[in-house]
Design brief:
Low-confidence stretches: 1-66, 233-249, 573-588
Number of helices: 16
Shape: elongated
CATH class of the largest domain: Alpha Beta
Number of strands: 28
Radius of gyration: 32 Å
Strand content: 15-25%
Largest sheet: 7 strands, antiparallel
Number of domains: 5
Structural class: alpha+beta
CATH architecture of the largest domain: 3-Layer(aba) Sandwich
Mean pLDDT: 77
Distance between the termini: 37 Å
């Protein structure tokens, strides 16, 4: 099952639904916000899967409040008209009926704003849509049969109450079985779908198409008709009876896919460095290189999860041991690059010189490969070997552990580690330099990496930077392929989409399989659009909670309305009220006019008529005249409520960047309906 990608955000399935069996819910949505004085619900649609929804913009509806530059259609209730894409792979055309395809496939089961319809009368065949209410976001004309009408604001998701059990969500084609459940506790009708509460919380709830209330035994219960996508195993019959289906094709859940992708982004780099007297300058080069990598990664749009480590090696000579008998020193992986840089900065070289040119480099490499705490099975792993002389080969006195290239190759292959080697020109005759080059080249070749000759100190930084870029690209390719596999793309489609060689895609699939991922489960089921009725609560427990789809600019407007109301709640003789109101009035436009012109209707009705959402138990249910004639006690109580509850809740939501999806230059997101004033 797969989520939907926006810049800087990932919208994933809320729950697992079942159309007769467990299936993954891919979508969610919004619905109308009802103010204290009531706003008309969006027109109901009795069909279970609307094909070619009728979307209208009444004569007066275009007078509704608009963000600057907004020009999408609005319905009879002043709500911006939106549509959900209910088929995968839909692309727009540049003109209705006989246009050519334009742009990328539309985001599956995501809201688009509607600007026009074709033909102008009768049954609509195409809708002109855009990602925001502004005309510059228009992407083209989409077939009406691929869209489902959605011009409300409210969505619902599973209610989460700490320490309380949430009942399962049952979705029925009609309302009657739900009323039976409330009256008798049981119903003989099989549900259209059922959902299981998932641990992961996501950004997008289910779209509410319609709401009703029923009274049972003197208590009022809420019912909602939600739109959703359910994943049905390939080849399964969604109309078959529950008892006839016993085998379900298993796919990874959204949370599992997110976990795999998070682990795929891990990049582990260990520097293995000659720490004898002659190589002190190269520790400074490593520090500069890691600083450059830090800047590089900070500026990249793709951010790998980088950890770095360090292994130093010397030789089996008195005066060179770190501890008795130890020729290596190991600093394990850490995400603290600042601490790593400090550690490298404060290392010291020994005063004792080696008695010959070769060093105990195989010991250092073996420590780097086998003693590093490589993260999980998914991390991309690299050792960068830096040295200016050769290693003692097996059989030589100063290689008492008899370590050689074959041992390094086996250990590195077992742990999926590549060893990049930087061959720095050192001291010694031609034979020593040939031996040095041959060893470093063989080590890199044996682990599937590269060997780079280094003629000067500056080249060390350049090469480390290059290796970091190369490995970051590997991590990004693995993440891209994992994401597209989870979206249902074939290897050939992935290769074409990302301009990869098919062998690169195959290598990633083999990497995932080697890390324990069942690649066959890394895909969505067959998504099917449906709509049905569900209970908001049952006796003793709430099942669903309502959220509202708003622009961040609308939250700003609500905060302005609260601030203006606060200024009006001071006594008429209080200088603070007049000064505060005057300071805000020039910036609040229509809200300032509401008080100056003494509009007769309450403020919440005034705002709703302009398309601005307000709460069902609104603090804005007062006309300008009522505000002016309130008692001092009532003024104080309302001011306290606004200052202590309404404004802080809205400010927290407005400033929580995780709630808002960036689309062009507008931001939309979901906030709890209960915090609306």
């Amino acid at each position: 099952m797969n989520g939907i990608s926006f810049p800087g955000r990932r919208l994933v399935p809320c729950l697992w639904l079942a159309v007769g069996l467990p299936m993954g819910l891919l979508g969610s949505g919004c619905g109308e916000v009802h103010g204290g004085h009531g706003m008309a619900e969006a027109p109901s649609d009795p069909t279970p899967a609307p094909a070619g929804p009728e979307i209208v913009g009444g004569v007066g509806s275009r007078e509704a409040f608009r963000l600057p530059g907004m020009s999408c259609l609005v319905n009879e209730s002043g709500i911006r008209v939106k549509a959900l894409v209910i088929e995968k792979g839909v692309r727009c055309i540049d003109a209705p009926a006989d246009g050519i395809r334009v742009g990328s496939p539309l985001r599956h089961f995501q809201p688009y704003f509607v600007f026009d319809r074709w033909p102008a009368s009768g049954s609509a065949e195409y809708f002109q849509i855009g990602s925001t209410p502004r005309p510059e976001s228009i992407v083209g004309w989409a077939p009406a049969s691929t869209l489902a009408r959605w011009d409300t604001r409210v969505g619902v998701r599973y209610a989460r109450r700490e320490g309380a059990r949430t009942p399962p969500l049952l979705v029925y084609r009609d309302k009657e079985p739900l009323i039976e459940l409330l009256e008798r506790g049981v119903s003989d009708v099989q549900p259209l779908a059922r959902a299981n509460l998932k641990a992961d919380r996501v950004l997008m709830p289910w779209p509410v198409a319609e709401s009703e209330q029923v009274s049972v035994d003197g208590r009022v219960y809420g019912l909602v008709r939600i739109n959703f996508l359910a994943e049905i195993p390939e080849g399964d019959d969604p109309t078959a009876a529950v008892e006839e289906r016993t085998e379900v094709e298993q796919v990874y859940s959204a949370g599992e896919v997110a976990g795999i992708r998070q682990r795929v982004k891990m990049l582990d780099i260990v520097f293995c460095v000659d720490n004898t007297h002659s190589t002190r300058p190269y520790l400074d080069d490593i520090r500069r290189a890691v600083e450059a990598i830090s800047v590089q990664l900070h500026d990249l749009p793709f951010q790998p999860d980088l950890n770095v480590g360090l292994v130093l090696y010397r030789d089996y000579i008195d005066g060179l041991y770190y501890e008795p008998g130890s020729v290596t020193r190991h600093f394990d992986l850490s995400s603290d690059l600042v601490g790593f840089l400090h550690r490298v900065q404060n290392l010291e070289e020994p005063s004792t010189s080696s008695e010959d040119y070769p060093e105990a480099g195989y010991d250092g490499l073996l420590s780097a490969v086998t003693e590093t705490s490589w993260r999980g099975d998914f991390s991309t792993r690299a050792v960068i070997l830096i040295g200016d002389n050769s290693f003692h080969e097996p059989g030589e006195v100063r290689n008492p552990r008899q370590i050689g290239i074959d041992r390094i190759r086996r250990e590195a292959a077992e742990r999926r580690v590549k060893v990049f080697t930087l061959n720095i020109d050192g001291k010694g005759d031609d034979a020593e330099q040939r031996r040095h080059w041959n060893q470093f080249a063989a080590i890199a070749r044996a682990t599937g990496a590269s060997c780079f000759p280094i003629e000067s100190s500056n080249n060390v930084v350049e090469r480390i930077h290059l290796i970091s870029e190369t490995q970051t690209a590997v991590v990004k390719t693995r993440d891209d392929v994992t994401r597209e596999l989870a979206a249902g793309l074939s290897p050939d489609q992935i290769a074409a989409e990302h301009k990869l060689d098919i062998r690169q895609v195959t290598e990633v699939m083999e990497f995932l399989a080697g890390a324990g991922v069942d690649v066959d489960k890394l895909k969505p089921g067959a998504p099917t659009f449906a709509t049905g009725w569900a209970l908001v609560e049952v006796p003793g427990a709430q099942i669903l909670e309502r959220e509202v789809y708003v622009a961040r600019a609308e939250v700003d407007l609500l905060l302005s309305a609260l601030n203006m109301l606060s200024s009006q709640l001071y006594s008429t003789t209080d200088f603070g009220r007049d000064a505060f109101g005057a300071s805000l009035g020039g910036h609040l436009g229509a809200i300032g006019d509401f008080y100056r012109d003494q509009v007769a209707e309450p403020l919440d009705v005034f705002l709703m008529a302009k398309g601005v959402p307000v709460g069902r138990s609104s603090v804005l249910q007062l006309s300008a005249s009522e505000v002016r004639h309130m008692s001092e006690d009532a003024r104080t109580a309302l001011r306290e409520r606004i200052a202590r509850s309404s404004v802080p809740s809205l400010v927290n939501a407005r400033n929580d960047d995780a709630l808002w999806i960036f689309r062009d230059d507008l931001e939309f997101g979901w906030i709890a309906e209960e915090i609306l004033p």
